[in-house]
Structures are given as C-alpha cells and as structure tokens.
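Quick start: what a row looks like.
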Amino acid sequence: MADFKFEPMRSLIYVDCAKEDYRPKLQRWLHKTHIPESISQFEPYVTKYAFYPAFPMPTGADNYGYARMQLTEHHWLVSDLDPRLGIKALQETFPLDVLVWQGNLPETALGHGQIESDGDAGNTARQTNDAAGNPFIFAFLPMWWEKDIKGKGRTIEDGANYRFNMAIGFPEGVDKAEGEKWLFEEVIPVFEAAPEVTRILASAVKKDINGCVMDWALEIWVGCQSEWEKVFVEDVKSIRKPEWAMTDTFPYLKPRHNVISTAVADYTAFNNLTNYRGYITMR
C-alpha cells in the first residue's frame, strides 16, 4: 500500500429513521451486523469509527431535514473511494430494507434482498437516489474544521453541548459564491448574535471524493432543546429569503435533499474501534 495517497479526512453520514417502527430493526442491524463487518473491512486505514445517537427531534427541526437515528463519523487515512479498496474477500451484508428504514428508498423495496455490489455495499448504498426516497448523505470533510467562527477556547468544563450539525447544499444552478455570501454574511451573523449559541464551526464539503450534493457542514452549539427552538425557529425568521429559495421557511432548502442535520452530544459510548465488544444482549 506504499503507493496509496495519504489523505487524512473526516466523514459524516446522517442516518435517519423513517418511522419509529423501524428503529429497533435499524438499531439491531447497525450494532449486530454493520459494526463488525465495517471494522473487518477498514480497520487498517480508519482511525475513528463512531455512532453519535441523535437527540429527540425538536419542534421545527423537520425543516432542517433532521436525521432521527444518528450521526456516523469516520476518520480516514486514505480515500475510501480508491478502486483498489473495492476488492473484498467478503462483501458486506446490506439489505435493501436498511435503506427503507433510513428513508432512502420507498417501502416497495422491502424484502427485495441484498444490495448488489462488486465491492463495497456501502459505496453502492450512498449512490442510491430514488425519486421516492431521500439521498444517502455521506459528506467528506477535511480532518480539521476550517472556520472557527464563535466560541474559540471553550472547554468541556464550560457546560453541556447540544451540538447541532447541519450540512447544506445550494440548489442546482445557484452560483456557489452567491450562496456562500448569503450563508456567511446573512445567516451566520444571526447565530453569532444569539446568546444561546456558544460555538460555531464550519468546513467545506470535499465534493471531489464522492460527489456529495452538500457544500458546507456546520456545527452550531446551544445548551439544550428549548434553546435550539428559540434560535432555529424564532431567531431565523429575520433571515432574508433568497431568490433561489426552495421553501418558504428557513433554511429555505429542500429537507433531506439540500439540507440535513441532527443534534448530538460531545460523547458517545459507540466509539466502535475501541469500545465494540460484540452484540451482547440484555438478560
């Protein structure tokens, strides 16, 4: 592997749960099947693999395409899309049902078997974009945040963090520079001014890795759900609706297509490379 390009990067997968009836099925598959199979595939070139469970969805968060299951984080040493990584001794178990549970495919796909893939079933899954479902959002970012906008110097002793993570993609045909001007000159200042907001970080999505539809990933921290609702439902009403708006409500983007989000804590017990011990059931 000496000729592989050393390219440290981070990735985020926003995992929704289309309805509560699917939550036990999706959780069982993730923890019983997906974690060990994933570790078996990428342990040599991944340094972090973690699941951050989503906090309950706040009122108004559906406008932001809130992912109700979890945020999955990887730290990569090489690109996961290198074609040489597609040759697998054992293919992952990835039933189409999983994409239904996550809202990526309609219910008509239930029971239609395994994802067909020559290599990594996860790579095939992220390319699924059914008109009746929602895109599988897998966003690659630089390993380190690029913009430190508010709250530099915060420590874990400064209080609990309700970390709202949001990825946005400007609509097709919109000049990216125009979209970024609106984001950083009209949107971000509203969050900066809110006393409830303790931290703002941002990074551009590395679109060259897998063609992700998102342009920017942001984290905007508050202290709790009610503070989120004050800032993200009430304060945002002052933000101008751009000419290219896709909806009438901020963030003016199509949920789960051009905006996706979730809120998580700092800590997770599911730091899988170090903590996973198998599917050990409750007595």
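That is the whole record. The chain has a mean pLDDT of 94. The first strand starts at residue 9 and ends at 15.
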